[in-house]
Design goal:
two-stranded antiparallel ribbon; ten-stranded mixed beta sheet; Isopropylmalate Dehydrogenase; 14 strands; 2 domains; 21% strand
Amino acid sequence: MKIGVLKGNGIGPEITAATIRVVDALGLDIEWVNIPIAEEAVALYGHPVPGEAIQMLKDVKVAIKGPISVEKGKGRVTCYHEDGSEYVYPSFNNAIRRELKLFVCQRPTRGIPGISGDHENMNVVIMRELTEDVYSAIEHRIGDVAAECVKLVTREAAERIARYGFEYARKHNRKKVTCVHKANAISITDGFFLECFRRVAAEYPDIESDDYFVDATTVYLLKKPEMFDVIVTTNQYGDILSDLCAGLMGSLGLGAGANIGFDGAVFEAAHGSAPDIAGMGIANPTSLILSAVQMLHYIGEDRSADLLEEAVRSVLIEGACKTRDLGGSASTEEYTAAVIDRVRQLMEAAK
């Protein structure tokens, strides 16, 4: 099948190339289709998120994406449509998600013995709502004295993300779904999000549900991560908590991400583009490789997905080949080669 590739910028091209090599080692019939984005798209189409790239993504339906970063305060982008309409997004990443109608960012965290310390048994999946909250780009300056941002929560989006979380829990034999919010201080919008969650929870009496304030959740994830199984939360809280979980796992370089909608998905590294180490050959590609594990599950290649995850985890647990962010000295190339070797060993053993 055809799978799109958005290389991104910074370390994006390096970790994307590594991920493609690892997935190709599985021997699947995949045709990788390059889709220009950011600087590459500007050079070709004069726009960082052009309609041509969005249409290519809609055509392939499934893609992997390296990180995309822009200068702070300059990520806001306007996308133009054939019917003459246009929409403003707060970032390139947000534009891709919203243009493709991707509504949930699914970010799993599974601890790794020898790397995750006290969190080696952590096993949490964060379901981040992608279409609303303060990332809706409804903001403006008030002269030179202030700036204002609207926090948007609709019943459609809140119930949709909650239902996705419960359906995921039911399908994957997860026992509990937790809503994370700040309904005590942001009582109307976060209160409404919690209200919608509880309404959906009533439809799933077989699955336990509860809720916690977002600030308390950060402490509980640090000290008692076993309290959580599946977390459903708003856009900004999900962004922050998933980075926290990746850090507790051992490094942002380990955090996987999947942006999923009803008619397609983009699987991405959960971290930024790290321009300070771009081109040095030391980036950790694990985040995008584990995102590719989610991609393989999504397209029905469960056996290959499980094998790839086992290969990555076994290399990391053994500890002989770790990148610098994990305390090792392996280059991107050395680590990628180690994972490919382990994939081939596991495939041979499975014959």
